[in-house]
């Protein structure tokens, strides 16, 4: 029994088509002067090319390695210009070919026997179709079945949300909408409180924004969201390290993650505050001072935003989760791994999928429902 026979094919929606694991690769004539091969490799952006005869029938493949075997003697010969070496003289004649209706299961099981970069696709008469299965595409397809290349996630009021960019696991979109609604209420209450305070204390706008952010983070710190947020990070860290998903192991992971949205928030807020300072501080009206302020300000922000984001994660946006919250993260982690592994289609998410599965859209919908809903009710009163 080979490794592929151990997979339950009933759980796999569909195996890839030839088009999913192949690329258009030009062929070269067996009569081509080998002197022109480097340029052919460069134009095709691959170091191995199919070789055809005048009828378009595959007669071999030629690679940089084949050329390298003869090029020293050829190039250093005293009268090298007299050499007349054709592709047919150096190509590999034993060629592994496949047809469009090839058995994908057998092909995937034989990838370890693929000693060349390309397997030309031919028709019934062995004529080249212009398409090759590439070893790189096969390996890329097989490695993506191991685990997601990248995971993202969010903390929601009802648990952990995880995504590999294509699929959703955990609380899915309903949790993201609730996150937007929760954050909307937080912002609404904090803005009204800050506006009340600022009626008595006049401070520049950039300071008012910083005060509101500090209050927001302080309120967030005492909610369950920060502990769920930590459980999400700890689960992802365990998966990325290849560790078993159990409470004991996940609890040992860091609650901080380098791709956390907190880091991006620091960058965006930093740029906003920088521009407000530039607008509100009178002595910065000089063009020279404005230029210097922007240059050094952006240099400071782009040099420190990640470290500042990690600091905020540590002290404000994450906290030690309970076993129940870790178990929730583990459940979402196992779910996303199972979904990803069973979906063997080598498809990359399109832009709409990426945006939707990032969760920003759903959060914004929930967020604006609260803000505009409050304004609507307020105007009715």
Write the layout of secondary structure elements.
Elements: E1 22-24, E2 28-29, H1 37-44, E3 48-52, E4 58-63, H2 64-76, H3 87-90, H4 104-109, E5 118-122, E6 128-134, H5 135-144, E7 152-156, E8 159-163, E9 168-170, H6 172-198, H7 205-221, H8 225-240, H9 247-251, H10 261-280, H11 287-317, H12 323-342, H13 351-358, H14 360-380
Describe the structure.
The protein is mostly helical and 381 residues long. It folds into 2 domains: 3-144, CBS-domain, CATH 3.10.580.10; 152-255 and 318-380, no CATH class. 54% of the residues lie in helices and 11% in strands. It has 14 helices and 9 strands. It has helices spanning 37-44, 64-76, 87-90, 104-109, 135-144, 172-198, 205-221, 225-240, 247-251, 261-280, 287-317, 323-342, 351-358, 360-380, and strands spanning 22-24, 28-29, 48-52, 58-63, 118-122, 128-134, 152-156, 159-163, 168-170. The strands form 3 sheets. The protein has a 3-stranded antiparallel β-sheet with strand order 1-6-5. A 3-stranded mixed β-sheet has the order 2-3-4. The chain starts with 21 loop residues before the first strand and ends with a helix. The model is unreliable at 9-13 (pLDDT under 50).
């Amino acid at each position: 029994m080979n490794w592929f026979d151990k997979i339950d094919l009933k759980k796999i929606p569909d195996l890839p088509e030839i088009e999913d694991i192949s690329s258009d690769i030009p062929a070269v004539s067996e009569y081509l002067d080998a002197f022109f091969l480097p340029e052919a490799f460069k134009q095709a952006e691959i170091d191995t090319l199919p070789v055809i005869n005048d009828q378009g029938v595959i007669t071999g493949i030629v690679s940089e390695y084949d050329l390298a075997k003869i090029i020293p003697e050829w190039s250093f010969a005293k009268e090298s210009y007299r050499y007349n070496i054709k592709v047919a003289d150096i190509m590999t004649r034993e060629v592994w070919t496949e047809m469009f209706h090839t058995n994908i299961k057998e092909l995937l099981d034989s990838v370890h026997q693929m000693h060349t970069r390309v397997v030309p696709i031919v028709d019934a008469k062995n004529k080249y179709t212009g398409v090759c299965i590439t070893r790189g595409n096969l390996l890329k397809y097989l490695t993506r079945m191991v685990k997601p290349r990248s995971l993202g996630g969010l903390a929601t009021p009802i648990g952990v949300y995880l995504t590999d960019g294509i699929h959703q696991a955990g609380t899915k979109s309903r949790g993201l909408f609730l996150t937007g609604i929760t954050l909307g209420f937080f912002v609404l209450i904090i803005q009204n409180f800050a506006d009340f305070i600022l009626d008595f204390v006049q401070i520049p706008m950039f300071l008012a924004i910083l005060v509101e952010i500090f209050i927001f983070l302080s309120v967030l710190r005492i909610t369950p969201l920060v502990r769920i947020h930590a459980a999400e990070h700890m689960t992802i860290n365990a998966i990325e390290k290849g560790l078993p998903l159990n409470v004991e192991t996940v609890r040992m992971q860091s609650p901080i993650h380098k791709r956390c949205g907190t880091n991006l928030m620091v960058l965006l807020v930093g740029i906003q505050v920088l521009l407000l300072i530039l607008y509100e501080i009178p002595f910065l009206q000089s063009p020279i001072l404005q230029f210097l302020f922007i240059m050094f300000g952006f240099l400071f922000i782009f040099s420190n935003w990640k470290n500042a984001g990690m600091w905020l994660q540590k002290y404000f946006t994450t906290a030690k989760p309970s076993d129940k919250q870790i178990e929730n993260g583990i459940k979402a982690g196992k779910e996303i791994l199972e979904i990803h592994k069973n979906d063997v289609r080598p498809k990359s998410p399109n832009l709409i999928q990426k945006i939707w599965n990032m969760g920003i859209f759903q959060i914004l919908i929930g967020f604006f429902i609260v803000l505009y809903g409050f304004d609507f009710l307020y105007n009715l009163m």
